[in-house]
Specification:
Bound molecules: adenosine-5'-triphosphate, L-tryptophanamide
Strand order of the largest sheet: 1-2-3
Largest sheet: 3 strands, parallel
Number of helices: 14
Number of strands: 5
Helix content: 40-55%
Low-confidence stretches: 1-9
Shape: globular
Length: 346
């Protein structure tokens, strides 16, 4: 192809939209993290330019042993690769490896109102959970998250439902900044799956399934083996009615299991009700467990293989950080210029 033709072809192709998302290395990801976020991260790679990040700085808001944090950061990276994140076409990196995120976070913090931050439900929840460590990082957490997103001009942010408030504040911060200093940031949209955006705890189905829950029976981990998955689903809290029927308000346990089953099989709630009509919870729980185990087993196998090659994982992260930093550094320089920070001599 001649150079002119090539240029024309390139011009004809619309620019692909950009995605950024992150996950904290606070424990092994659960089925909730998978269905609400990670699975979509892998699927969306086909149509978007994607950056995926292990949010290690965000995880500092909860106290953790340094050695465990280091180990979990590498493990989570390996698990994301095992779940289908393609490190060549997407960018996989660790948040702290790209220092400009924290540089932008400071500027954004100076453009975010105290009152706005006090309204964040995650801040209220986490403060209640860790009353001995209500630190400044927990309070400014959404500002760093806004920086993660805005620094790449991300168009779309795939997350579970619990993060929608953080996306709203991100748009707010971006809008306010653009009004003050001229068009700078893209206003990002959330990508929250229709089904599975809020998988509930198996032990207390009115609470969200969370990887930092102290009760190991409350979650299924992405790395659990088949026997463990079956055991956890068998123990899942249901109700005494004995019929598989969707009613989130009155039958939260059964409805949660139906939602999980639906996201993996594509079946509607009506189809699931028909499938298990006249059958007990035992059969239903086993079917859900087997379906989940079928989906997670290949990821678990791939995870062990990838994690054994530490040099490979570290190499991916090094390459990812370099590619991310090229974009992020440029945005910070632009923001610094716009707000009037004197440019240093180069
Ligand atoms: P922690 O328990 O440490 O608060 P977490 O399990 O909530 O962690 P995060 O790292 O905060 O996990 O979240 C990673 C992604 O997974 C986010 O997009 C979040 O919205 C999504 N997610 C978390 N829990 C669930 C859930 N129960 N159902 C659906 N999506 C979820
Ligand atoms: N707060 C998110 C993790 C996170 C994130 C991000 C998600 C940190 N930075 C940027 C999307 C975009 C959470 O899942 N708790």
């Amino acid at each position: 192809m001649s150079e002119t033709n090539q240029n024309q072809t390139q011009q004809a192709q619309p620019k692909r939209k950009r995605i950024l998302s992150g996950i904290q290395p606070t424990g092994t990801p659960t089925l909730g993290n998978y269905v609400g976020a990670v699975r979509n991260w892998a699927l969306l790679q086909k149509d978007y330019d994607c950056l995926y990040m292990v949010a290690d700085l965000h995880s500092l808001t909860v106290r953790e042993e340094p050695a465990a944090l280091r180990r979990r950061t590498r493990e989570l990276s390996a698990l994301l690769l095992a779940a289908g994140i393609d490190p060549v076409n997407s960018v996989l990196f660790v948040q702290s490896h790209v220092p400009s995120h924290t540089q932008l976070a400071w500027v954004l913090a100076c453009n975010t109102q105290y009152g706005q931050l006090t309204r964040m439900t995650q801040f209220k929840d986490k403060s209640a959970k860790h009353p001995d460590n209500v630190n400044g990082g927990l309070f400014t957490y959404p500002v760093l998250m806004a920086a993660d997103i805005l620094i790449y001009n991300a168009d779309l942010v795939p997350v579970g439902e619990d993060q929608t408030q953080h996306l709203e504040i991100t748009r707010d911060i971006a809008q306010r900044f653009n009004n003050l200093y001229g068009p700078t940031f893209t206003l990002p949209d959330g990508y929250v799956p229709k089904a599975g955006a809020r998988i509930m705890s198996l032990a207390e189905p009115t609470k969200k399934m969370s990887k930092s829950d102290p009760n190991v029976n409350s979650f299924v981990l992405m790395t659990d083996d088949r026997d463990t998955i079956v055991r956890k689903f068998k123990r899942a809290v249901t109700d005494s009615e004995g019929s598989v029927r969707y009613d989130a308000a009155n039958k939260p346990g059964v409805s949660n299991l139906m939602a999980i089953y639906s996201t993996f099989t594509g079946k509607s709630m009506e189809e699931i009700e028909a499938e298990f009509a006249g059958k007990g919870y035992g059969d239903f729980k086993l079917a859900v467990a087997e379906t989940v185990a079928d989906a997670l087993t290949p990821i678990r196998t791939e995870y062990s293989r990838i994690l054994a090659d530490k040099a490979y994982v570290d190499g991916v992260l090094k390459d990812g950080a370099a590619r991310a930093a090229r974009l992020a550094d440029r945005m910070v320089a632009k923001v610094y210029r716009k707000i009037g920070l004197l440019q240093p001599e180069r």
